[in-house]
Every structure is written in C-alpha cells, then in structure tokens.
Amino acid sequence: MSRTGLAFWQEYEDAASPEAKAVKALDKLETILQHNQGINPPDFDYGFNPTYGQKHTNAEPLFALMRSILDEGTNQRIAESSSASGADLAKERVPPSKT
Fold first, then answer.
1. Less Cβ crowding at N or C end of the chain, within 10 Å?
2. 43 belongs to a structural domain
C-alpha cells in the first residue's frame, strides 16, 4: 500500500518519525533565518523569534546548535531595531544557549 501526501503531511504534523522531526525543526529554523536575513518593516517584531519552535529545535543537539547561531542573529536584529527606533527591546533578547 502506498502512502498518500496526506499521510506524509500527518506524519510531519505529528512529528511521528525521525525524518518528520528533522523536517519540522528545519522548518522552524528556516522561519527564523528568514526573519534575521530578510528586509522587514521598521516595526517588525523580532520578539516572535526567541520562543518560536523551541520544542522542535531543541530536540536534537545539531538543531539546538543551529538555533543558538540563529538566536545570535535575532539578538543582533533586536539591538539594531532598538537603536534605530529608540525603543527598549532588551527584554526580548534571547537568553544564551545552554548547549
């Protein structure tokens, strides 16, 4: 019996296999990368990034390491945004990784 696209989607949604868990983690990391590297509106809320997808990105050491690198980029964008707008966004900073 062949698997349908719907079955693959459900496997991804449920993170039901090692492959689905990896894809889900990479999907979350890619979103953060887009936020860090993209041209965002001046009022873009980088405060979304610090907790986004942590359940999936912290599940494996490789993804946790990748996440810590991206968190550095998020902190840089928060600092740039803060200095550009004069707003105090330091409370949104990502805490240092424990990896």
1. N
2. yes
Cβ atoms within 10 Å of 97's Cβ, excluding its own: 13
Residue 88 included in any domain: yes
Q: CA end-to-end span of the chain, whole Å? A: 42
Q: What is the pLDDT of residues 21-46, one digit of tens each?
A: 999 999 999 999 999 999 999 889 99
Q: Count up the domains in the chain and report the number.
A: 1
Q: What is the SS3 assignment for 48? A: helix
- Which stretches of the chain drop beneath a pLDDT of 50? 1, 87-89
Is the residue at 98 inside a domain? Answer: no
Strands (E), 1-99: none
